[in-house]
């Protein structure tokens, strides 16, 4: 049986085994998917051992995505652009393919919801690792414009230089402008602390909003607040978790699993 796992530290909380096991059942793939705890400083040894025992692929999570990027012998463009790898595929010829499915997983989830960024104005809040993961995917959809707003503007400028095709400003500047956006994406970590980004309530009116974070309910402080302020639709990031897993699964197995039943089951568990 082909073996896969999610590798990280810590790893106990990971939902990936649940998601991939459901994918494998629904697509009749003969495979198993487990959790692999990796001691800090032992990434290469842990991955080498897993491969030596017949492992075919890994998902990589915190804090090893950069080390996985270095471990891969071939990288997808999006992994190169992100500087981080969340999916490794071990080929029979000894090569190791590294990919990053976070951005594609986000777009996968957006499309599941019937949203379309093409020709639209997008506001992205936050310029940390989460933004870096999704910006390429957003730009590939050919939006009319992308405005990236961050508390530390210098970090937004770094992403602007790397990705091109985006505008950046501070929260203060945003609130002095009269721009409107069809989509507002919260890629800050604020919801983790039940805090809201400092943007004017009027911006939410008629917008579709997405929070990359998720919690035990299907809403976050951000999505709840946005709906109260008149947002047309609001989604949390659970679907992105399923989406990035679906894209990894496709890379390994060549079949695209159906996300909705897994998302429904996951939602019930939280
Ligand atoms: P990562 O590990 O994903 O890179 P991070 O760099 O801490 O995490 O990024 C988290 C994002 O949330 C950043 O955009 C961060 O803004 P800064 O770059 O200015 O730090 C944003 N963020 C976190 N706490 C915030 C707060 N209290 N107010 C505004 N933005 C905040």
Q: How would you sum up the major sheet?
A: 6 strands, mixed
The amount of beta strand, in percent, is 15-25%
Q: Which of globular, elongated, flat, extended, rod-shaped describes the shape?
A: globular
Mean pLDDT reading: 96
- Please state how the strands of the largest beta sheet are arranged side by side: 2-1-3-5-6-4
Radius of gyration: 19 Å
Helix content: 40-55%
Stretches where pLDDT is under 50 for at least 5 consecutive residues are: none
**Associated small molecules:** 2'-monophosphoadenosine-5'-diphosphate
Order of helices and strands: EHEHEHEHEEHEHEHEHEEHEHH
Strand tally: 12
Please tally the helical runs, counting DSSP H or I stretches of 4 or more residues: 11
Structural class: alpha/beta
Note the gap between the termini: 30 Å
Topology:
Layout: E1 2-8, H1 16-26, E2 31-37, H2 43-52, E3 55-60, H3 65-71, E4 74-75, H4 77-82, E5 87-90, E6 96-99, H5 102-112, E7 121-125, H6 129-140, E8 145-149, H7 153-163, E9 167-169, H8 171-176, E10 183-186, E11 208-211, H9 221-228, E12 233-235, H10 238-253, H11 259-269
Helix pairs in contact: 1-10, 1-11, 5-6, 5-10, 10-11
Bound molecules: 2'-monophosphoadenosine-5'-diphosphate (ATR).
Could you name the key traits of this structure?
270 residues; alpha/beta; six-stranded mixed beta sheet; 11 helices; 40% helix; binds 2'-monophosphoadenosine-5'-diphosphate
Mind explaining what this structure looks like?
The chain has 270 residues and is of the alpha/beta class. 40% of the residues lie in helices and 20% in strands. It contains 11 helices and 12 strands. The strands form 2 sheets. Strands 2-1-3-5-6-4 form a 6-stranded mixed β-sheet, sandwiched between helices. A 6-stranded parallel β-sheet has the order 9-8-7-10-11-12, sandwiched between helices. Helix 6 links the parallel strand 7 and strand 8 (145-149). Helix 5 (102-112) packs across helix 10 (238-253) and helix 10 (238-253) crosses helix 11. The chain starts with a strand and ends with a helix. 2'-monophosphoadenosine-5'-diphosphate is lined by residues 126-130, 150-152, 155, 188-190.
């Amino acid at each position: 049986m082909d073996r896969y796992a999610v590798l990280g530290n810590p790893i106990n909380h990971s939902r990936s085994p649940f998601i991939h096991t459901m994918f494998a059942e629904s697509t009749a793939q003969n495979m198993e998917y487990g959790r692999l705890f990796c001691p800090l400083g032992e990434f290469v040894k842990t991955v080498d051992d897993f491969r030596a025992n017949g492992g075919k692929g890994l998902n990589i999570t915190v804090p090893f995505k950069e080390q996985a990027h270095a471990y891969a012998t071939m990288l997808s463009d999006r992994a190169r652009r992100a500087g981080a790898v969340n999916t490794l595929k071990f080929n029979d010829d000894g090569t190791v393919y590294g990919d990053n499915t976070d951005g594609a997983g986000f777009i996968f989830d957006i499309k599941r919801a019937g949203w379309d960024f093409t020709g639209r104005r997008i506001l992205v809040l936050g310029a940390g690792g989460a933004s870096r993961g999704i910006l390429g995917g957003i730009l590939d959809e050919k939006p009319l414009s992308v405005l990236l707003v961050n508390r530390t503007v210098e970090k937004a400028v770094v992403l602007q230089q790397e990705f091109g095709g985006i505008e950046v400003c501070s929260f203060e500047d945003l609130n002095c402008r009269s721009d409107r956006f069809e989509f507002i994406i919260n890629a800050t970590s604020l919801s983790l602390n039940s805090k809201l980004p400092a943007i004017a309530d009027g911006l939410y009116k008629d917008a579709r909003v997405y929070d990359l974070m998720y919690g035990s309910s299907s809403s976050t402080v951000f999505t709840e607040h946005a709906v109260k302020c008149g947002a047309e639709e609001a989604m949390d990031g659970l679907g992105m978790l399923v989406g990035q897993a679906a894209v990894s699964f496709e890379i390994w197995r060549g079949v695209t699993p159906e996300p909705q039943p897994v998302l429904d089951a996951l939602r019930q568990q939280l």
